[in-house]
Each structure stands twice: as C-alpha cells, then as structure tokens.
Amino acid sequence: MSGKIEIIKADSDCRTEAARFLGDPLETHRDYMVWSCPFHAEKTPGAFHVWRDSYHCFSCDAHGDVFDLWQYFTDRTLIDLIKEHGDFSPQEADARRADIAHQVAEARAAMDAERKRQLAKLHESERHILYAENLRNSPAGKILWNQRGITQEWQAFFELGYSENFSYTGKLGRLTTNTLTIPVKAIGGEVLTIRHRLINALDGSRYRPEIAKLGSHPFICDTDLPKSDDLIIVEGEIKAMNVFATYDKSGAQVVGIPSKSMMDKTVRQTRGRNALIIPDPDGAMEILASAKFAGARVFVPPMKIDDFIIENKITKTEFRTMIKQARKQ
C-alpha cells in the first residue's frame, strides 16, 4: 500500500487540489501558491502556502500532503482515497500526470493574465495619487501618520495617502472604515499594489489590499536605488519607513516585509549581501536560522522597532550606534 501512496502523491499536485476546494489563490509564485487558511480564521490572510507536494500554514502550523488535504475536505478515510485515486494502469498514470501538469500550466497562465489585467486597472485608476491628494487635504490623516512616526516630509516622499470609507469584506461581513494607504512600488517606481492600514476596524483586521489578486510585495523605501551594499530588512512597511527616516543614510536601502511567512524567504535571499535584519521581538527566534543561512546580522529591539523609535525619540546617531552592535548569526 505504501508504494501506491507514493505513486499517487507523485502524480498529484496539492496546488491543483487546493484550487479545487478553495478557489483562486490570493498569490501565485513560481513554486507555491497562497490561500486563506482553511484550518483557522486569519486576521491577515496570507500564511497558508501550498507547494506541489505539500502545504503549510505559517500561522497555525497546519501542514501535510495531498492525502491530508483530501481527507480534510472530503472527510474520506485513507483507504477510500487510495481506492478512488489508485486504480489506474501505468498508461493511465502517465495520462493523469500530463493532465495535471496541463491544468497547472493553464491555471498559472490564467492567473498571470488576471494579475496583469488588475495591475493595468490599478495604474489606470491612479488611486495612489487620489489617496495622496486626500492626505494633503486631511488634517486627520496627517495626524494619524504623524502618530506612527511619519512626518509630512516623509509622507510626501513615500506618496502615502488617506482614504475615507474604504469598503472591504471581513469576518463580520462587508465593512467600511478609514484607512492609511501605502503604495508598494518596484524599483523604478511602478506601483505594484496599494496596502490599506485599517483604522479601528470593527472586526480587528489591520491590513487589506486595494485589489486582492495583485498579491503581496516587499515595500522598497528608495525605489531609485537598484542595489545597495547597506541593506536593512524590517518586518512591516510602516516600521521600514521609520527605520529609513531615522537611519537617514545616503546609499542605504530599507525593505519592509508585509508578513512573517515572506520574511523568512526574503532573509534567505540576502545571502552574500551586507544585510541587517530587524524582526519583531515575537518573531526573532523564527528568523535566526534564516539569518544564519544568509550570513546576515540581526538586531532585535526590545519592542517593535517603530514603537521603540517613537517612544524613545531615537535620533539618527543613536540608531546608527545601536545597529553597529548587531552581529552575524
């Protein structure tokens, strides 16, 4: 039976099966796709990652293979599933494998086309410009950004914005709230997505995208700087802005990562570069192995870095002195 299980696993793709049960993914990457976790209620969807041969939620730690996925959604026993998926000849297995590969390629092409369509829609609407204009005319919006450590000078630099009556679907249904807006850009300045920081949302949610199908992207503070030998990776966009403004060093780059699950992958990609990692204190232990792999230095603040900078009124000189103490893992 174990041999048949391995054959079925090899011929199956968890991503295809997840799409069958969960619909279109929130994000599509080369090797994995991201959905809202079916095993627990996420405050900010994006932790449930599915690869070809497995899945893992980085929030609730649910994990498994295609059989676990089938059992969860169909409530069938392992024996029943093996009977259902295992009765095929070698020729049928080859055909099934080819069909799965074709389905995956088609789904990926369709999602890529949809992403491009939604991105064009975002660019045509120029929503980030509208939100920035709203902020310039909103004393309340400016105060909210100032409270988060971002002065008007930096609000303009990052093209931050403010939105009134932003509507989104939450755990309590369709909700409306005011938001602070963050245009996330590629090197060169192309807007890839807009993140909304919800203000006092009724369901406790903190972030929502302008358009969900555009996926999540790192927040690059200086989009005119293609590469830097002085790189700082921070967990969170607003934290990255605070670090960038406080560090205030020519030629330095700060990148804010929107989720803990993306943080691990991004840190590993810094291998061979002079990178400094600033995680949230509650996620520091999880990131140390990745930092060691990358040969990166780590600075763990006593509280979230933006709160630490704001509450202690950390100056440029003090900040530079502190991060010099960071050591490689």
State the separation between the terminal residues, measured CA to CA: 44 Å
Q: What is the second-level CATH architecture of the largest domain? A: Alpha-Beta Complex
- Characterize the biggest β-sheet: 6 strands, mixed
Number of domains: 3
What's the arrangement of strands in the largest beta sheet? 10-12-11-13-14-15
Q: What is the number of helices? A: 13
Number of strands: 15
- What structural class is derived from the secondary structure elements? alpha+beta
Structure summarized in a few sentences:
It contains 13 helices and 15 strands. With 329 residues, it is α+β, with helices and mostly antiparallel strands.
